[in-house]
Automatic annotation (TrEMBL):
Annotated Carbohydrate-binding domain residues: 48-201
Organism of this sequence: Aureispira anguillae
Domain of life of the native organism: Bacteria
Record-level Gene Ontology MF annotations: carbohydrate binding; hydrolase activity, hydrolyzing O-glycosyl compounds
Any Pfam family the entry gives: CBM9_1
Full protein name: Carbohydrate-binding family 9-like protein
GO biological process: carbohydrate catabolic process
Amino acid sequence: MRLTIIGFFLLTSCIFSIEEPVFIDVHKKVVFPKHYIVYKTKHTINLDGKPEEEDWQNASFTEPFIDIEGIKVPQYKTQVKMLWDDQYLYLYAEMEEPHIWGDITNHDAIIFYNNDFEVFIDPTDDTYNYTEIEVNALNTTWDLRLDKPYRFGGKANDYYEIEGLKTAVEIAGTINDPSDMDQYWAVEMAIPLEVILQKKRKKVKGPQAGDYWRVNFSRVQWEHSIDSGGYSRKKVDGKLLPEYNWVWSNQGAINMHCPERWGYIEFTDNELTHKKSPIEIENLLTKQVAYALLEQIRLGAHQKMLDNKVGQTQKIQSIHLKDEIFEAKFVKTYSGFEIYIYNQTLEKEFVINEMGRFKSLQ
């Protein structure tokens, strides 16, 4: 007979259990990702930074971006819309901006030292081997891939190139001219699907209808100074003021490299004239609870649990969230730790390890 998580809890508690359950409050740590349906276009998209095609006109914008901490309304409006076809994920981002400027012109330079627009993509929703694209108002780009998040020891591959990536920028105003006021700048992208999906073990050229990817967008915005007729990042007492980060889906922290907090985009074969309702992401709430527990134990207020002896288990008080009930237990292992989670409401069992590997045990 299969050993359930509850059975596992009872078995291990007889030998290695720490009797007193620990209370880990994840209610303010669980992030609820936004969801955007990407409709399929059968028409040619002319990549010029202008959304003049009929499908672009009919595509819906996302909600306006929010501050990365989710608590402040940005000074300027930012919105994105998306389409796809058999080759590309198309993206159009429009950013209000009275002073459009940029001075970075070398590809793969650190683009966020200028105001920029950034795209983050994890097509397998496992937080590993994800792609980042940055572009400034001069249409200078930086594309890179990370093997895992920085806080888990991830390394960025700056030599990674998205072969076939296309970008265009439209300036509604005049760039690098402090004498006037501008309206906005916009980025249009064609991101080759097959290249992004190269991380899959089998050859996949593109998503299928009903597939979903973890995606988020960030707008980096610096306060500026005008000196000798030019722009630069503003300093006070010789120190740069920190940048603003404005995002589509709430990150809950000043860190874009938390892929488990990104939003979801869903691909549909429907054309824009045939709207559909979002699909339900399987086991989403359990996954978000698991990552919130992981964060609290590995990097947050409950790091003392890492001092437990190998083989010890420690029960976590029941978690009630959005009409679902979770039982969880921390297990110290030779390599790190595991958190076993039983969703009582769905009667499903899961585990996540210290490196964020989340899986179902059924």
